[in-house]
Amino acid sequence: MGEGAQRRLTVRAGDALVSLPAQVVAEVIRRPRLTRMPYAPDGLLGVTHLRGAVLPVLSLSRLMGLPAGEAERVVVLRREPPVGLAVDGVEALSEEDAGDAWPALEEALASRFARDEGRRSPTKIAATPTPITRDHAKQRAFFRVDLAGQGYGFPLDAVVEVTAVPETIADLPRTDAVLLGVCAYRGDLLPVLSGRALLGLPERPGDRAERLVVLNLAGARLGLVVDRLEAIVRASPDRLSRAPSLFNRGGGEARIDTVLRLADDRGVLAILTPERLLADERVTQWLALAAGDQEARMTQVETDLTRERFIVLRLGEERYGLPIAAVDGVVRSPEQLTRLPKAPAYVRGVMSLRGKAVPVIDQRLRLGVSGRPAERERVVVVTVDGLQAGFAVDAAGEVLEIAADELLAAPELTGPEARLFDRAVERGGELILLIDPRALLERAEADLLRDLAGAAPAS
């Protein structure tokens, strides 16, 4: 190699060969699974997780105005924060120059990402709960699940996380059908109970729709397998009443003391409270099977104070997280909505929620998600700057509990619409972008929806 020669990495973008200075290349990896980022600048294929940071991946072909290829490799550039270039192949590392494309690429990258000065470190992002913009002091919030066709509710504060049932649940000796066993959970053991058996309901073979609800019972954790998730429900205390005796005629251990009368004559919700579960001696014995020492318990309580909970929204193949503190409720999508003349295409209409007209926004259309919506759509009701709006999504129900040191900074893209996601978290090899509730509606959209809601009668 000649004196003063500079090594260059030659990559392939479509039919073209592109030369990059070797010193700007950190590594080359196989193309990972990418999470689509709505409102992304041109050329951004998505984001992924790479060793404790969020890595934006751009198409080199699209940046250079070339026909897109297979893009099987990603060249990770030495930038702060790092950026990946998706290329069709890596040809050589040598002194040969296939045309220096770096100055133009550097300019293109600068135009797509916000300046790095003052950027927050991902490890220093505080897990501060999102402020609630509407007074919920007089309302009670419940997480609704389904067991054998009947709705049950848990106080939202008691629900730590909702996730898929683990593939491996270890059996324990001398236990009955209620206690399914224990599974690994955050470095400890989690006792897992059958919701159906606990309530004296007939068992059924497990299926893919079943979910594990992790409950916080006086500082201890317990997992409950339920048939499926339904919604988050908020209601005033005057809708709570004593449960009829028929709710406790089964052979289960759990007792139902309270029922919630749902709005619009949609039936009742049987409420399961941590106090009633702990009142059963057998439940406390099952918890003791997986309980740690007192010092470990105190450490867990201290750790809980630095955690946030997010409800996971699914749109197409992607999952996004929304702070659960900002969610007023999650309901089934109404069969009919009141259409609004002259409304933008993304506004489906308005629905009646507790006597109030709530505009419903089609998030698939607004975020450019392709494909057909799910048959069992959900509407996530959120209050943004005093405006209550519903966001139609394919599914919503899974809950994630995220520690402060798990939060990652999302890429700081140019343009105000690109700031919808302020953080991210990695779960099972998938990067989940976390939504900033304050960025859900642009100012012009908020003004428009406020006018529409004021003009629409609540049916």
What do you see in this structure?
- This protein is mostly beta strands.
- It folds into three domains: 106 residues, CheA-289, Domain 4 (OB fold (Dihydrolipoamide Acetyltransferase, E2P), Beta Barrel), CATH 2.40.50.180; 165 residues, CheA-289, Domain 4 (OB fold (Dihydrolipoamide Acetyltransferase, E2P), Beta Barrel); 149 residues, OB fold (Dihydrolipoamide Acetyltransferase, E2P).
- The protein is built from eight helices and 30 strands.
- It has a six-stranded mixed β-sheet, with no helix packed on it. Strands 27-20-21-30-29-28 form a six-stranded mixed β-sheet, with no helix packed on it.
- A hairpin with a 2-residue loop joins strand 4 and strand 5.
- About 8% of the residues have low confidence.
| Record field, number of beta strands | 30
Helix tally equals 8
Q: Overall pLDDT, averaged?
A: 78
Highest-level CATH class of the largest domain: Mainly Beta
Largest sheet composition: 6 strands, mixed
Overall helicity? 10-25%
Radius of gyration (Å): 26 Å
Share of β-strand residues: 35-45%
**Arrangement of strands in the largest sheet:** 16-9-10-19-18-17
Q: Flag low-confidence runs.
A: 116-136, 292-305
Tally of distinct domains: 3
CATH superfamily of the largest domain: CheA-289, Domain 4
Query: At the third CATH level, what is the topology name of the largest domain?
Result: OB fold (Dihydrolipoamide Acetyltransferase, E2P)
Structural class: mainly beta
Shape: globular
CATH architecture of the largest domain: Beta Barrel
User: What distance lies between the first and last C-alpha atoms, to the nearest angstrom?
Assistant: 79 Å
